[in-house]
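dumping these here so i dont lose them again. two proteins, back to back, each one seq then structure tokens. dont judge the mess
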Amino acid sequence: MDTSIDPFSDFYPYSCGLWKKRHPIPKDKPSVGSFEDLSEANLLELKRIVDSCVANPSRYKNGRLIAALYGSFMDTKRIERLAFKPIEPMMDKASSLERMAQLPSLISELSRMGSWSFMGMYSAEDEKNSSVYALHISQGGINLPDRDYYLQDRFSGIRAEYVRHMARMFRLYGFSQAEADSSALAIMKLETRLARASRSSTELRDSIKNYNKMSVAAALRRYANLGISTIYEGLYVRDPDYIIVGQPEFFDKLDKIFTSEKIETVRAYLQWNILNDYSSMLHDAAVTEHFDFFGRKLIGQKEMRPRWKRGIGLVSSMLGEALGEIYVKEDFGEEAKRKALSLVKGLQSSFRKRLESVDWMDASTRRKALDKLDSMTLKVGYPKKFRNYSKLRMEGSNLLENFEAAYNFELKRDMSRVGKKVDREEWDMNAYTVNAYYNPSKNEIVIPAGIFQPPFFDKSIDQAVNYGGIGGVIGHEMTHGFDDQGSRYDKHGNLREWWTKDDRKRFNSRSAKVASLYGSMDALQGIKVNGKLTLGENIADLGGIHIAYDALKSSMGSKGMGKRIGSFTEEQRFFIAWAQIWKNNTTEDLKKLLVTSDPHSPAHVRGSLPVLTHERFEDAFAEKSKLKLPKEKYNNISLW
């Protein structure tokens, strides 16, 4: 804390100011904060597990797989010796494309190896029939972080650097300078066409507009040139009953691109995607060039992360549940899980009381809202069952072969379940992840074991700090079931309207006030927060802090909230703890990226605005301030 700052003048630096001064951004990261610090601590534990697997592969059930993948990534002598040879067969396939009619089959083949082009294709719950997995296709094909990077003037410098980066990568691979330059310019034009056809990040938040169910026959007629059936059949999908198209107008334009783009440009584009997707697993020259653009120039990261950290990251992305199964056995026992679940249920009870007292909701909608909350599945710590990797084989020290084996194993598991019953025990985060999520199609909140550590949770410190930390995070995730998008799903996870028309109007009116207030906040100099893009997360932050505060108050019982530690009351410690979980320092380049595409508000806004709009803030900190009133006076705008 920086107590030289008045809490009524600027609450965020009051709560986090000295930390921000004393924690410069590490050279090998673009940001530092509560989430990053704990993730780094967990990374050391994962390294201990991986090193143990390398030393004794038979010690754990999946130890051999972990050891093989990590060991092949760390075999730098072999990687340097091979240089680009591991991807030459893929590059040759791309360069052999002669007719656009061959493209769907080639897209499918390269996608099986981990290099996607033009579109996304995946299985997920059918949002209107959440008991089955459906085949989804979505816009894709661009390699910069967001479509706005291709379209807005403020990113013109990045676009120029991107073209130069592509040319340098092609030169490294062996293209002549003329070939490299012309290919890079052509690819930039193609990706810009894809960007213009794409919806914005804000538009992509709309669950209803992103649900466009088509029969297979209708999709094949409408997008006759895309060869969609050839692509999904090559990706292990057999005879789907229908396809859910995320952005139909994107595929209309992509269909025209498939008939109008030069074959030479498409070949170069496929080759570029291969180079880009695999560069982190190639020799040092390719890795360094990739980092120079995507790390240094795009997000302001000064140095590459140590190789062992990148290796753990690869294992985590490919074998996350294998790592998680070992992690929870050694770091998160049943007692910790029981305590965590008890905390979650207390917060659920707090939220229930708030729903019961909301004055703008009529009895019909309230009854269904309470039913949805009571039906919400709570997953805490780790899955009941971990993934079965018994059919996955990885042998030897060939990194790309090991990667492709792991990638294909997961792809086949994911895509072959289209049309089958949804597995409601499955998790979408690893047990050691420092985060949490709400899944609207399953109406569930998932809080991994990894986040149940300081500064979010510590059983040895007082309740006020725990409720301001992990309590606020859990309350946030619960509120997602009732934010502007989550509220569109019923208790079973189906996308349908269960509100009365008048209640939906009142909800939208209150949501507009949230979007307006957040949209008035500075994200960085000269750029405001996108209140519409961040609306769901902002509603969840506001709800989360209220739910956690009420739960803390309830846990105090007859004792009340007057106990002090040092000079701080429980109320004060709660609000300070909330601000401190969002303490963060971030490079300016990453801030520009995040304000463009991240549905979360910047850390300083998340750490302050939910506190400043809370009805108890002014009374709680009046004794700590030399001012009579807060510098900025805000009304309580929380919907919940």
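---- next one ----
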Amino acid sequence: MSTDWHERLSQPRHRTHIEKDLFVTMRDGVRLAADIYRPDADGKFPALLSVSPYSKDVQKLPVREYPTDRDLGNGGIECGDTDYFVSRGYVHVIADTRGTGISEGGYRVFSAKEQEDGYDLVEWIAAQPWCNGKVGMLGSSYFAIIQLLIAAQQPPHLKAICPVDSATDMYRHWGYHGGMLNVSFVSTWWDGSLVVNGVGPSGLDAGETERARAQLMNDPEVRAYPRLWKAARWPDSNPHLFDIMAHPHDGPWYRERSANFDRIQVPTCLIGRWTSAYIHLPGSFCAFAGIQAPKKLMITTPESGVGFNRPWHENHDIVLRWYDHWLKDNDTGVMQEPPINLYVEGRNEYRHENEWPLARTQWTKYFFTLQGGLRTGTPGWNEKPDRFTSASRLMPGEKVPALRYATPPLAKDLEITGPIGLELYAAIDGDDTNWIVELTEVDANGAESRVTIGWLRASHREIDATRSKPWQPYHPHTRSEPVEPGKVCRYSIEIREISHVFRAGTRMQLLVKAQDAPWEGTSYIYKISYHVPPLRDTRHTIHHTPEYPSHLLLPVIPS
């Protein structure tokens, strides 16, 4: 296009007319509460639906703009800036999911019933006199995840979606990381963000619930954390945490709540951020790979460097461009550009790409070697293994035991863009442990900054070869297989995607450890993703020889 695409977008022309606390009847008779924000003009407009358990009323509180941080009091305000879209000719409908806010019924996170409700809401909106029959959806995080689930229900009048910060696999992206319980997030989310007035059925009968309670209450890891034990003892105190703990392996409970890409047939624009490796980032890439409808992917770094500021406005022009095209037939040029737009960290610029991983990728192995080295040459036969011992009684502020493997200072910039795989050959002196690996950049002064991260519980090391790629192993997570103490095992670990330029003079480094701690960094992301550490001091032995060639597989992009 010869002109800036911003000039093609709908312009602000309308004030907002508000209708509060309308009740919409679902197919089973339960009524959901919704607020309608629409242009103060006659005529029919496209509509955008936002639905969550965070309360529709909370979305309009006049909070200060902070990045994502529950401690700062603005968690859950994620439906978007209503006036921005209404002024540009869209109706915005914000609804409480069943069992939350002032809606009727019982709530269970992302349940099949909640997905059916989304279908019914879309079709109700399309039939209203102020709607032109075209409906999209709006919002980030929960508001984004539910978009993908509702789209798979295929309501006829849902014409496009735009999930911002989504997740698509509720086992791998939400409840567990590599088989490790995402304890700090799932144990606090229910109390920290939700407005629940009624709890729905769990899917377990009374006997199954009692058996799960008894097993969890006697689990050493659960007994080590009172918050977890209380949820096991009194499931109604935190039903979501109980559900996650009662389902430690992947299966039907998670599949019901995970995106079904084969059924998503509407145009989809996915917006994510490099700072959301813990939950949202992999969802954006998985959805882009799986959805076969017209699609776009944008990965950015927020203004704050952490999460999108609340009430989440930073990419509204991107969302508007998408919906102007699909809901207003406005030629914004969005489909004339390559499908991917990446923010390349380190170079600090956006770049369009046509595929993921990039076709020009030079897959390069960086091997562990002597004295904590990381190099492209293979290790020698006589290299002795490295060891560290996890600390079961680590005190606040103490350093987490870890090993570090780093390159020499780089002679020139090195761009790594794509998914990353790690093949780790190691032995432990127990029957299970956690593997937590962090790729960092170390500057000339020795200061480390984390770039990305990966996880794997040792007992979940089984891989599905039919679904794995060299750079992206796939673990079924359907069972736990204890480790034979002292035996060298191969651990294939998925590390979250990146686009990062390691600058000349810095070193690329991999940390290998068995536990994390909320005091490890100053960012809030260290606080919201914490895992139960090994309950005994466990010795970890990492091998690097031609027989046991521990290495990273990196997507190097030629300059």
